[in-house]
Amino acid sequence: MRQLGFICAAAFVALKENVAKLEGDHKKAKVLAEGLNQIKGLRVNVAAVETNIIFFDIVEGSKITAEKLYKKLEEHGVLVMLEGPLRMRIVLHHQISSSDVLYTLSCFQ
């Protein structure tokens, strides 16, 4: 690999500047997971949320489908990933603020 220096430089910056931010990302993910779990029709295994990734399910028999919820959230600038007909995923990163988490929760309600 003749361009290994560029890859190493990116890895160095990531380790030096972003690892410290991971703890905050994980805390925000936990707050979001707890908030989502309080919303009727959604189910989150909050205990399983240990990183910046949240998986949640739409309870069977709910009035909304994952695809409809996906489109509604997208209209509000909240991007999620469909994992199945009733399962979705949200990933937080260091540029997501606490107010972004609250905004996201408001979009679900």
Topology (SSEs and partners):
Elements: H1 4-18, H2 22-37, E1 42-43, E2 53-58, H3 66-75, E3 81-82, E4 87-91, H4 98-108
Antiparallel strand pairs: 1-2, 2-4, 3-4
Helix pairs in contact: 2-4
Features:
109 residues; alpha+beta; Aspartate Aminotransferase, domain 1; four-stranded antiparallel beta sheet; 4 strands
What does this 3D model show about the protein?
The structure is a single chain. With 109 residues, this protein is an alpha+beta fold. It has a single domain, classed as Alpha-Beta Complex (Aspartate Aminotransferase, domain 1). It has 4 helices and 4 strands. The protein has a 4-stranded antiparallel sheet with strand order 1-2-4-3. Helix 2 (22-37) packs parallel to helix 4. It is elongated, with a radius of gyration of 16 Å. The model has no long low-confidence stretch (mean pLDDT 92).
Short description:
The chain is α+β, with helices and mostly antiparallel strands and 109 residues long. Helices cover 48% and strands 14% of the residues. The longest helix has 16 residues, at 22-37.
Structural domain count: 1
Order of helices and strands: HHEEHEEH
The beta-strand count equals 4
Task: Provide the CATH superfamily.
Answer: Aspartate Aminotransferase, domain 1
Rounded Rg: 16 Å
Class per helix and strand makeup:
alpha+beta
Neighbour order of strands in the largest sheet: 1-2-4-3
CATH fold field value = Aspartate Aminotransferase, domain 1
Number of helices: 4
CATH architecture descriptor name = Alpha-Beta Complex
Unreliable spans: none
Helical percent range? 40-55%
Largest sheet: 4 strands, antiparallel
CATH class: Alpha Beta
Beta percentage is: 5-15%
